[in-house]
């Protein structure tokens, strides 16, 4: 059984995959590829993000957001369950593309499979790019005789893989692919792909729901911050009214123009006005 610790991702299409070389024979047992690994494709060996630090209040403020599973953890669970739902498969990988992240997020049951996904995205060749482009499944019944994706075929056979099936699921701001692999040709039959399709569809809906929930939490946090800073803006507006002898609307307009001119947030401008109590600001505010 090979070491399950993630190996550094190789340069896609430039050399042999990580781990021992395997011919197109039976390969290692499926149990050898059963540990899920997840992370962004450019840095698959990066460790988990550091824990939350800071004052207790900051930790309490993040409780609601922390309760939502991260995309990486969700993808790791997805590939683990995909292998269980497809008993004839030897491993699985999944990749998520969202508007929130500049790079795709991937998870796989073995680092070799993560490298295989990275190689496809780098070269734009393979079942994952084809499924993303067409919106339809991309299946290879026997890679030994399937020549559609030469680079993918070579790397997959080098890893001992003979078959694969890639499914794609689309939501509003999410594109999700799920690929199951087999050590034997033709082992990924219709029932196997059907179970993976049902699982992937449920997972995509769940990821999209979590994304919407996180976005709602971020919006609520922004609104809360704005409400807490509103008294400071009102106080600064009153000071500007006294300094410039203007009405409330004009004072707010002056603060906003100064905020844009100085490239500062309105709340920061208000804090400065309050801290100086308007002293020396008549000339500065009058210029804007």
Automatic annotation (TrEMBL):
InterPro entries assigned to the protein according to its UniProt record, in alphabetical order: ANTAR, CheY-like_superfamily, WH-like_DNA-bd_sf
Molecular function in Gene Ontology: RNA binding
Superkingdom to which the source organism belongs: Bacteria
ANTAR domain location: 213-274
The name this protein goes by in its record: Transcriptional regulator
Gene source species: Streptomyces albireticuli
Signal sequence interval, chain numbering: none
Chain intervals with Low complexity compositional bias: 48-63
Region (Disordered): 1-63, 89-108
PROSITE patterns hit by this protein: ANTAR
């Amino acid at each position: 059984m090979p070491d399950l610790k993630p190996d550094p991702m190789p340069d896609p299409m430039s050399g042999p995959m990580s781990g021992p070389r395997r011919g197109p024979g039976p390969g290692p047992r499926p149990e050898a590829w059963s540990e899920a690994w997840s992370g962004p494709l450019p840095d698959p060996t990066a460790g988990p993000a550091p824990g939350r630090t800071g004052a207790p209040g900051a930790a309490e403020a993040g409780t609601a957001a922390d309760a939502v599973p991260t995309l990486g953890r969700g993808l790791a669970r997805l590939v683990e369950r995909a292998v269980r739902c497809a008993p004839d498969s030897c491993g699985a990988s999944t990749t998520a593309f969202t508007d929130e992240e500049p790079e795709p997020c991937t998870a796989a049951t073995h680092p070799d499979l993560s490298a295989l996904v990275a190689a496809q995205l780098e070269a734009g060749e393979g079942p994952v790019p084809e499924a993303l482009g067409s919106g339809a499944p991309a299946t290879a019944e026997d890679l030994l005789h399937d020549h559609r994706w030469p680079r993918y075929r070579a790397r997959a056979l080098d890893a001992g893989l003979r078959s694969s099936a890639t499914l794609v699921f689309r939501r509003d701001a999410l594109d999700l692919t799920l690929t199951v692999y087999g050590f034997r040709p033709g082992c990924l039959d219709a029932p196997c792909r059907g179970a993976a399709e049902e699982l992937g569809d449920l997972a995509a809906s769940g990821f999209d729901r979590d994304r919407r929930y996180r976005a709602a939490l971020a919006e609520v946090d922004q609104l809360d911050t704005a409400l807490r800073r509103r008294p400071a803006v009102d106080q600064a507006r009153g000071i500007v009214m006294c300094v410039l002898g203007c009405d409330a609307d004009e004072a707010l307009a002056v603060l906003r123009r100064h905020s844009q001119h100085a490239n500062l947030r309105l709340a920061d401008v208000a804090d400065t006005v309050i801290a100086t109590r308007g002293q020396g600001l008549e000339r500065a505010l009058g210029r804007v």
